[in-house]
Amino acid sequence: METILAREEDIIEEFSFFDDWMDKYTYLISLGKDLAKMIPESKTPENQIKGCQSQVWLNAKINENSIFFEADSDAIITRGMIALLLRVVQGQKPEEIAVYEFKFLQEIGLTAHLSPSRANGLLSMVKQIRLYGVAFQAKRK
Amino acid sequence: METILAREEDIIEEFSFFDDWMDKYTYLISLGKDLAKMIPESKTPENQIKGCQSQVWLNAKINENSIFFEADSDAIITRGMIALLLRVVQGQKPEEIAVYEFKFLQEIGLTAHLSPSRANGLLSMVKQIRLYGVAFQAKRK
Amino acid sequence: MKYLKVKKDFPILNQKINGKPLIYLDSAATTQKPKVVIDEIVNYYSFSNSNVHRGVHALSERATDSFEEVRLGLCHHINAKHQHEIIFTKGTTDSVNLVAHGFRSILKPGDEIVVSELEHHSNLIPWQMLAQTSGAKLKFIPMTTNGELDLSTLGSLLNLNTKIVAFNHISNALGTINPVKKITSAAHSVGACVFVDGAQALPHMRVDVQNLDVDFYAGSAHKMYGPTGVGLLYGKSAWLEKIPPYQGGGEMIAEVSMEKSSYAGLPHKFEAGTPNIEGVIGWGTALNWLNDIGIENIKTHEDNLLNYALELLKEIPDVVFYGTAKERAAVISFGLKGTHPYDAGVLLDQMGIAVRTGHHCAQPIMTCLQIPGTIRISLAAYTIQDDIDKFIEALKKTILLLN
Amino acid sequence: MKYLKVKKDFPILNQKINGKPLIYLDSAATTQKPKVVIDEIVNYYSFSNSNVHRGVHALSERATDSFEEVRLGLCHHINAKHQHEIIFTKGTTDSVNLVAHGFRSILKPGDEIVVSELEHHSNLIPWQMLAQTSGAKLKFIPMTTNGELDLSTLGSLLNLNTKIVAFNHISNALGTINPVKKITSAAHSVGACVFVDGAQALPHMRVDVQNLDVDFYAGSAHKMYGPTGVGLLYGKSAWLEKIPPYQGGGEMIAEVSMEKSSYAGLPHKFEAGTPNIEGVIGWGTALNWLNDIGIENIKTHEDNLLNYALELLKEIPDVVFYGTAKERAAVISFGLKGTHPYDAGVLLDQMGIAVRTGHHCAQPIMTCLQIPGTIRISLAAYTIQDDIDKFIEALKKTILLLN
Ligand SMILES: Cc1ncc(COP(=O)(O)O)c(C=O)c1O
Ligand SMILES: Cc1ncc(COP(=O)(O)O)c(C=O)c1O
């Protein structure tokens, strides 16, 4: 399986082809459209991350020391961001996820989406992803 | 009896002889020292004007349509100011006192003593003097 | 005059965002500040900064005099009867809380508080908290789907148990101008106290508190071209005398012993602690700037722009308007069919256009309209026609990108 | 290093008052602001001004990021454990009221609140108000005639009914540095919550809230080279979770319906309404300025100047000192035999010297010392030896004039 680092590099390379913000956002929107919808039953209050702007739902399962996430949002660009975030962490090991910094966002110029000002749920989602890493690590011990 | 205006002009002329602030304040301090002390019995809570910096006591009586004030303070410069203020209003008619503006303070450069910042009781005292004018006018009617 | 030409007074508007000229259409959240206000702040800190009141030195006097001059200026501006009826607070939210807190010792179980459904959270939650602590009952003036208050309900809502009626002058989420006089006289007819949140009205229209006859009126400097962190509470003397002080501290007392204190007179009773001196003084300059232009001229300018924008938006098929009150000011709230407001906000930002998206701190309105939020553009004296044109162009691009 | 050389950073100090160079010895009332702070305010309003949180556009992000960075900076500065333990308030007074209000729902009749006799009214009256509303009893740590707290009384004052112990870190009226750790551990030993008013400590010494182990700590930006209208409340997470929100409004809620709201997490639960954004951001710059110099260097500078001034004052026969604690900082309070403090203040002002006279919002201390007030000089990083020399010279002239 590809490491987090390798997956980040893939994404950075993909984004390097975009000349302008429009291409970038068109891609993000298409990622958002393609992201599998979470089934309504999984959208429980416990899985919900409340943002003021957009809502995010996040759920995680562990399978043989790999964490698998599913996530959703009511806003399409937030869904696009979710697709990118999940792409790097999907199936990775708890110990890696627990400390992972999502550095690629900086490279592709999308860190603003994690600003506390956005209140879109993504900042909390990133924290939550790491917490799942910590929690599943702890469980295993 | 001299009018308020005439008395103001006297004071303005007196002050015009001072070359510097030291002479002016030396005079103010000497006025403060010379001002008759109010007898303790007259320093009632009703006559007290609370400033944060210095306290002022003010009392007034009417005699044949002339108002006579007595006033005191715990600070010597405030007493000096009181001496000046009383000098112009002492024995004047209620209707004149009720609307009197204490314009001479401007001319002699002492308006700062009436700033709300000073909290020395003088601003309230000036208002109270005018209120006595209004009150005694009303009583007469 | 069709449009004002004051944009040049605002240094911040002369910049690029994401490589595009900034188009600021978020003035209802906070207005930008004219250069004179910024200069005044520099001037204050460079020449007069000092703690106010109770100082005998020259700086303290200078600061106190400027500070109190602003109180007088605001008193004239809203036509209050007395200077001491103007209380400086942290902002509108602080003002609402001050009054709601004051009523804790006045209300009893069985009393009723009437609040409108059109409120910003700041003029709702303090009353909810008051209801909870006092046992009073909270009742609501409902809104109609076009964003107006349904006044036909007033008759059944108000009764002799009604102690407070609280509502805003202009809704920040929908721009509705509420009929203050009408509601006030209905409230007074049952003896209720009227609290009006004027945060969005003060920047946009002439406010005359004596004419409106309201008991309390609140506003924020930062929404009317002044600094952040300062606001006002106007209250009729009799009411301000009646409610107890909100905060304890320096300045607000007459005499203090260890066990007990007696409170100072108005306005000091409600101004505990060092105030936002710079904020107040900057506000004074903002007020002068505003009055030099004339609030009526600002209103005309904004009304013209509002109509211009509405016409252009109507031509875009995907646009759904929220709030179409007959009387409205400076705000347009809308959605794009099949999309989430947040997505539009993000894309518009990429094109240098600052709009606000979301519930605008007015969740009950969103619940009523059954939407997650709106896209809101809001205007100010410095907004120009070209801003609207650029916004419309960007909005069309946004719609293309999202579909 | 004996003395700092930072006066040049302060534009305001380069002016004449009544024809004489300004000597500002009133820093305990409010400090002056270095040029970098003034510049930052200009910069904020010229480039980033926007309402914080919940905005998706670039300005809002810029403002929010700068705003939150200051929270982090203050967290590090006082060594709080978590960023969300730093609450932005209007100032120290607001902070005290926030906590005192929060305890209304916690205290019961029979509970006891212990406050020191050395307090500024801001850290006394809110507790008096709390005692009155909750039925709790107010008790006092007495002061000795040299201006220290008489800790021998602690044993008899504290018991299992003691719920709150409130006192200041440094007295604004006398300069006494109180032994925070000692009182705190005594208070904790009976399970009481400790509230420390740090308004005068933050500008003058290193404060480490975890080391002190206090439960709450308050301060004001304007007393530490920052703007007016903003302050901080530090609280241990557990306490901040325990007390209910103070004000209702925007930002502080998670979900709102007409009847009921759920509150947001820390720090937002306590930050209703638009904060003083400019004030916070200006404070951040002030903090950086202060840290560049180093609070320990400031302390040494001020201690040296304080001793210098004390030596010179001791040589003047008419001077009577008030407050001669062993541990003291940046403040000298005194009187002139046979004269009223106000008179000295007025004459010193004529010579360009800004001192404060009066009760310094600490009437109980004046009552204890049986005086109407004091003349107070207070120092800051920008005070220089020449300021003290000019003050001493002017004071001698004052004594001559008054006799
Ligand atoms: C010791 C002390 N506590 C509290 C305060 C009140 O601070 P603020 O007026 O900034 O709220 C002051 C300042 O005057 C003070 O010196
Ligand atoms: C109608 C209305 N009321 C109250 C407020 C709260 O004002 P502030 O945040 O300045 O306290 C606002 C601003 O957000 C508003 O628009």
**Average pLDDT of chain C:** 97
Kindly identify the CATH topology of the largest domain in chain C: Aspartate Aminotransferase, domain 2
Number of domains of chain C: 2
Which term fits the overall shape of chain C? Answer: globular
Biggest β-sheet description of chain A: 3 strands, antiparallel
The major pleated sheet of chain C works out as: 7 strands, mixed
Helix and strand composition category of chain A: alpha+beta
The set of bound ligands, ions and cofactors reads: pyridoxal-5'-phosphate
List the helices and strands and how they pair.
The complex is a heterotetramer, with 2 copies of chain A (141 residues) and 2 copies of chain C (403 residues).
Chain A: H1 4-16, H2 21-34, E1 48-49, E2 56-63, E3 66-73, H3 76-89, H4 94-99, H5 104-107, H6 122-140
Antiparallel strand pairs in A: 1-2, 2-3
Helix pairs in contact in A: 1-3, 2-3
Chain C: E1 16-17, E2 20-21, E3 23-24, H1 35-48, H2 58-77, E4 86-89, H3 92-102, E5 112-116, H4 125-134, E6 137-141, H5 154-157, E7 162-168, H6 180-189, E8 193-197, H7 209-212, E9 216-220, E10 231-235, H8 237-242, E11 253-256, E12 261-263, H9 277-293, H10 295-314, E13 319-322, E14 331-336, H11 341-350, E15 353-354, E16 356-358, H12 363-369, E17 374-378, H13 385-402
Parallel strand pairs in C: 3-15, 5-6, 5-7, 7-8, 8-9
Antiparallel strand pairs in C: 1-2, 4-10, 9-10, 11-12, 13-14, 14-17, 16-17
Helix pairs in contact in C: 1-9, 2-9, 3-4, 10-13, 11-13
The complex binds pyridoxal-5'-phosphate (PLP) (2 copies).
One pyridoxal-5'-phosphate sits between chains C (91-93, 120, 122-123, 168, 172, 197, 199-200, 220, 222, 231, 361) and D (250, 273-274).
